[in-house]
Specification:
Length: about 400
C-alpha cells in the first residue's frame, strides 16, 4: 500500500452509453475539488449535451484531453454509466483502466456482475453508488435520490404532454373541465416527486405503496393514500426499502388495485425492490379496463417493469391505452441531472480524501456498502455471492488508500 505523496486527478470520460446526455462533473463542481488539491482532466466534448463546453471547464481549472489521456492521467474516474450500467459499451474501456485506479459511478453490479470481476482483475477499486446506504450522512452523495427526483418530475410532464386531457380543473365560459385522475404506485423518492408535480399541475392524485409508513407523506402532498386489505407489517426491509413478497401477495395486491387503476387517466408506476426484478402490479387485463386514451407510465421498465405489457424504451398501445416503458429519464434533463450527479460524486470522493490524498476508510459504511472491487478482488459480499465466490475476510480498518496509479501524463 502506497503512502507516498501523489497529486490526485479526477478523470471524466465522455459518456458512451447510447443516448446518454449527462456528464459526471460540471464546471461549477471543479472549485471544491481544486480546494482539496484535486485536479480534473476531461475528455473533449464530455459536457456538451449537458450544456457545458470544453472552454467552461478550462475556465474552471480543468484540463481537456482525449479519452486515452483521461484514463492515463487520472487516479479516479468519474462516470455516470459505468460497468453494468453501460452494458453496451463499457467493455471497450476495460483495458484503459490502470492498476489502483478508482472508478466511481452508477455500475449496476447485480445485473452484470461479470464486469465487476473484470474490473477486479485489473485491480480497479470500483464504487457502485447504487449501493450507497440511505443514511442521513450520505444524503448529499445519494445519486439514486437525485436521479429519482428528476425522473418523478419528468414522468408527470411526459404524461401531461401525451394525455389528450388537461390536468387541472377549469371552469370556463365553455363549460367545466374535470381534472385528470392520476394514480402513483410506489411512493419512494420518484413517486413523491411525481405526486407533488401532478398536484402542482392540478390533477386529482391517489397513491399507493406497500410500505404504509409513507401514508403521511402522501397526505401532506395533497394526495389520497389508497389502503388495501393486505398484511404489510413485514413489507419494509433494511434501509426503508421494500422487501420482495411472494406471488400470492402480488396476486391479491393486483386484485385489490384493479378498481383504482380502472378509474385513472394516468397511472405512474415506480415500484422497485433493490437487487430484484420489479414487482408486477398491473396485468394486461387491468390495463384493458382503463379509460380509452389513458396512459400508464412505467418508471420501473428498466428493472423489468411494473406492468405485464411494458417494453423498455417502447410505447405499447393496448385497447386504446398507451403503456410507456420509460428508460433513462434523467438523461432527458441533462443540465440539472448532471449538476446533482456531479455534486453527489464530488461529495462522495471528498469524504475519502485527506490532505490531498486518497484516504479510504473501509470501516465507513459509505465505503463498505459501495466498494465492489478492491486490491484485485471482488470484495462486496452480495456481489461475491452472485458470482458464486466464497466469503472474504475483510479487515475493517481505516487505511491511507490503495496504491495510487502514477499520473502518466503529468496531469
Ligand atoms: P425504490 O426505488 O427502491 O422503490 C420505490 C417504491 O416502490 C418504494 O417506496 C417501495 O416501497 C415501493 N414498492 C416496492 N414494492 C411495491 C409493491 N409491491 N407495491 C407498491 N409499492 C412497492 O425506493 P426509493 O425511492 O429508492 O426509496 C427507498 C427508501 O429509502 C424509502 O424508504 C425512502 O424514504 C428511503 N430514502 C432514504 C434516504 C435517506 O435518508 N438518506 C434517501 C432516499 C430514500
Amino acid at each position: 500500500m502506497s503512502t507516498e505523496a501523489v497529486s490526485l486527478t479526477v478523470g471524466v470520460p465522455r459518456e458512451s452509453y447510447p443516448g446518454e446526455r449527462r456528464v459526471a462533473l460540471i464546471p461549477a463542481s471543479i472549485a471544491p475539488l481544486k480546494k482539496a488539491g484535486i485536479g480534473v482532466v476531461l475528455e473533449s466534448g464530455a459536457g456538451l449535451e449537458a450544456g457545458h463546453a470544453d472552454d467552461d471547464y478550462v475556465a474552471s481549472g480543468a484540463r481537456i484531453g482525449s479519452r486515452t489521456e483521461v484514463f492515463a492521467s487520472a487516479n479516479v474516474i468519474f462516470q455516470v454509466r459505468a460497468a453494468g450500467a453501460n452494458r453496451v459499451s463499457s467493455r471497450a474501456d476495460l483495458d484503459s483502466f490502470r492498476s489502483g485506479q478508482w472508478l466511481i459511478g452508477l455500475c449496476d453490479p447485480f445485473t452484470e456482475p461479470s464486469l465487476m470481476a473484470e474490473l477486479a482483475g485489473r485491480d480497479v477499486s470500483c464504487f457502485a453508488l447504487e449501493l450507497l446506504p440511505r443514511i442521513t450522512r450520505a444524503q448529499s452523495m445519494d445519486v439514486l435520490s437525485s436521479m429519482a427526483s428528476i425522473a418523478g418530475y419528468k414522468a408527470v410532464l411526459m404524461a401531461a404532454d401525451q394525455l389528450p386531457r388537461l390536468f387541472p380543473m377549469m371552469m370556463t365560459a365553455a363549460g367545466t373541465i374535470s381534472p385528470a385522475k392520476v394514480f402513483v404506485m410506489g411512493v419512494g423518492v420518484a413517486g413523491l416527486q411525481a405526486i407533488a408535480t401532478a398536484r402542482r399541475l392540478g390533477a386529482v392524485v391517489k397513491a399507493y405503496d406497500i410500505r404504509p409508513a409513507v401514508k403521511d407523506e402522501v397526505l401532506s402532498l395533497g394526495a389520497k393514500f389508497v389502503e388495501l386489505d393486505l398484511k404489510t407489517d413485514n413489507a419494509a426491509g433494511a434501509g426503508g426499502y421494500a422487501k420482495a413478497m411472494d406471488e400470492e401477495f402480488y396476486q391479491r395486491q393486483r386484485e385489490l388495485l384493479t378498481q383504482v387503476v380502472a378509474e385513472s387517466d394516468v397511472v405512474i408506476t415506480t415500484a422497485a425492490v433493490p437487487g430484484k426484478k420489479a414487482p408486477m402490479l398491473v396485468t394486461a387485463e387491468m390495463v384493458r379496463r382503463m379509460p380509452k386514451r389513458s396512459l400508464l407510465i412505467d418508471m420501473a421498465a428498466e428493472q423489468g417493469g411494473n406492468c405485464e405489457l411494458t417494453r423498455p424504451g417502447e410505447t405499447i398501445v393496448e385497447n386504446g391505452v398507451s403503456i410507456v416503458g420509460c428508460v433513462n429519464i434523467p438523461s432527458s434533463v441533462p443540465f440539472h441531472a448532471s449538476q446533482m450527479y456531479a455534486k453527489n460524486l464530488s461529495t462522495f470522493l471528498l469524504s475519502q480524501v485527506k490532505g490531498g490524498q486518497l484516504a479510504l476508510n473501509r470501516a465507513d459504511e459509505i465505503v463498505s456498502n459501495t466498494l465492489v472491487t478492491h486490491e484485485g478482488q471482488v470484495v462486496h459480499p452480495r456481489i461475491r455471492e452472485v458470482l458464486g465466490l466464497g466469503s472474504l475476510e475483510v479487515a475493517a480498518s481505516a487505511d491511507t488508500g490503495p496504491s495510487l496509479p502514477q499520473n502518466s501524463s503529468g496531469a
